[in-house]
Design goal:
Distance between the termini: 61 Å
Oligomer: single chain
Strand content: 5-15%
Bound molecules: iron/sulfur cluster
Strand order of the largest sheet: 6-5-3-4-7
Radius of gyration: 25 Å
Length: about 400
C-alpha cells in the first residue's frame, strides 16, 4: 500500500488509499504531515490516569478478548495502528519511565495496512534503550520480539478503551499543571556567545522547530527528572534518536556559513560577515559556527550543503546534550579576503592568499567530493548561485 506516492519529487496523499494509520506522521522529522487532532493525545491521557502497572497496548485488529501472553495487569486498546505512536508518545506512555509497556505487534505481518511491524519495533527498541540509559524502571517490550518473557498461555485481563480518559476534573487539572512543569523543566535556550556585535549572519532560510520535536524534548525532560544516572557521562547511540551529533573538520571548514543557513531548525548558528560583502585584501573578520543537538532533526542538509565536505556525524550523544540545551562551538577563527572575489573565507594551512570555494571551482581546481550524486551536484550549483560566488577577478 502506497498512499504517499511521489509526483515531481514531492509526496502526494492519495485519499482513496490512506487509512489514517498515522505512520507517516510519526516518522516525519518536519511535521509536514502533522494532523491537527492526534488520537495518541487522548490515549496518553487515558494511560496517564492508570496506575504504573505493566500494560499491553493493542491496535483495533489485535485479538485480545481471550487474553494475552504478555505479563501485564491490563490491556488498553488504541483506535488505530501502533505505528502512529512516535518516540515521544512511547516514552510518555510508560508513565515517563515508571511502567513497563508491551506493544501487541504479533499480527502486524498479516495486517492489510502493510508491513509496519518493523517500524513499530524499531521505535520501541530505541525508546527502550533510552529508558534504560536514563536508569528508569519502565521498559518497552513487544509481543513479537520479546517472546522469551511471555507467559506460557494467554491470561484474561481487563480491556480498556484508549479513547476514554478516566480523569476527574481535578485530575485533569493536575495533569495540565504537570505538563506545564515539564515545559518549565527545560531551561530557556542560552544565547550563543556571538563574536560579532551584529549577531547571526543574515540570509537564513526560514526556521521552525516541529511540534513533534517539542513533545520529544518535553518527554526527555520528564525522564531526566527521575533519572538515576550521571547525565554528562551517560550516552545514547545517535541511531536511536531522531537527532545527530554534528561535527566539523576544522581544517576543511572555510567559514562559508552555508550549513547554518540551510539548517531548517537553527540547530546550527553561524556568526560572521554577510556573504554579499567583499573584504579588502588585508582585512580579516572573526567567525563562529555553533551547534545544539536538541534542535537537530538529523535531516542531513548541512552535510549536503557543505561545499568543503567538512561536516560529519558522530555516533553518540550524551543525555546532557538532549535535556540541557547548550551551544557547542564547532569551528571558529578569522576569515580573510578571497584573492579573486574578495568574499570572506578561511585560509587553509599554508595558504597565504586564500581562494573561496566558489572561486576554487571557477579556477578548475576540484572541490572536495566531486564524485557525488547528481542531486548533490545540483544542490551545490544552487548554493553557489545563492551565495553569488563571483567568477570575475576584481583585481584583473
Ligand atoms: S542534520 Fe544538520 S541541517 Fe539538519 S537539523 Fe541537524 S544540524 Fe540542522
Ligand atoms: S565550510 Fe562547511 S562546515 Fe564550514 S561553514 Fe561552510 S558549510 Fe559549514
Amino acid at each position: 500500500m502506497d498512499a504517499l506516492p511521489q509526483s515531481q519529487g514531492l509526496p502526494v496523499l492519495d485519499g482513496d488509499i490512506c487509512v489514517a494509520c498515522g505512520a507517516c506522521a510519526a516518522v516525519c522529522p518536519t511535521d509536514a504531515v502533522y494532523p491537527p487532532q492526534r488520537p495518541e493525545q487522548i490515549l496518553l491521557r487515558t494511560l496517564d490516569g492508570l496506575p504504573a502497572v505493566p500494560l499491553l497496548l493493542a491496535c483495533p485488529r489485535a485479538s485480545v478478548d481471550r487474553g494475552t501472553q504478555a505479563p501485564v495487569a491490563g490491556i488498553v486498546r488504541h483506535v488505530r495502528c501502533l505505528a502512529g505512536l512516535d518516540m515521544a508518545d512511547l516514552l510518555a506512555a510508560t508513565g515517563h519511565g515508571q511502567r513497563t509497556l508491551w506493544l501487541d505487534d504479533t499480527a502486524c505481518g498479516q495486517c492489510p495496512i502493510g508491513a509496519l511491524g518493523p517500524a513499530i519495533q524499531a521505535t520501541a527498541r530505541a525508546a527502550d534503550r533510552i529508558l534504560h540509559t536514563f536508569g528508569l524502571p519502565g521498559r518497552l517490550r513487544t509481543t513479537a520480539l520479546d517472546t522469551g518473557q511471555l507467559l506460557d498461555s494467554p491470561e484474561r485481563r481487563p480491556v480498556l478503551l484508549g479513547t476514554q480518559p478516566r480523569l476527574s476534573r481535578r485530575e485533569l487539572f493536575r495533569g495540565l499543571i504537570r505538563g506545564d512543569e515539564a515545559s518549565r523543566d527545560r531551561d530557556p535556550a542560552p544565547d550563543l556567545p556571538m563574536l560579532l556585535p551584529g549577531g547571526p549572519v543574515a540570509l537564513r532560510l526560514p526556521k521552525q522547530l516541529p511540534e513533534s520535536r517539542r513533545r520529544l524534548l518535553e518527554a526527555l525532560a520528564r525522564l531526566a527528572r527521575s533519572a538515576a544516572v550521571d547525565m554528562g557521562a551517560a550516552t545514547l547511540a545517535a541511531q536511536d534518536l531522531p537527532m545527530a551529533r554534528v561535527k566539523v573538520q576544522g581544517d576543511r571548514c572555510s567559514g562559508c556559513g552555508l550549513c547554518a543557513r540551510f539548517c531548517p531548525t537553527e540547530a546550527l548558528a553561524f556568526a560572521g560577515p554577510d556573504p554579499t560583502v567583499r573584504l579588502r585584501p588585508t582585512e580579516t573578520v572573526p567567525f563562529q559556527l555553533a551547534f545544539r543537538a536538541d534542535l537537530c532533526i538529523d535531516c542531513g542538509i548541512c552535510q549536503v550543503a557543505c561545499p568543503e565536505e567538512a561536516v560529519e556525524y558522530g555516533e553518540e550523544l550524551s543525555l546532557r546534550d538532549l535535556v540541557e540545551p547548550g551551544w557547542s562551538v564547532l569551528a571558529a577563527g578569522a576569515l580573510g579576503a578571497c584573492r579573486r572575489c574578495g568574499a570572506a573565507t578561511a585560509p587553509r594551512p599554508g595558504d597565504g592568499a586564500p581562494l573561496c570555494y566558489a572561486c576554487r571551482g571557477g579556477e578548475g581546481e576540484p572541490l572536495h567530493g566531486t564524485g557525488g550524486t547528481d542531486m548533490l551536484d545540483d544542490l551545490r550549483s544552487q548554493l553557489m548561485e545563492y551565495l553569488g560566488g563571483s567568477q570575475e577577478d576584481p583585481g584583473a
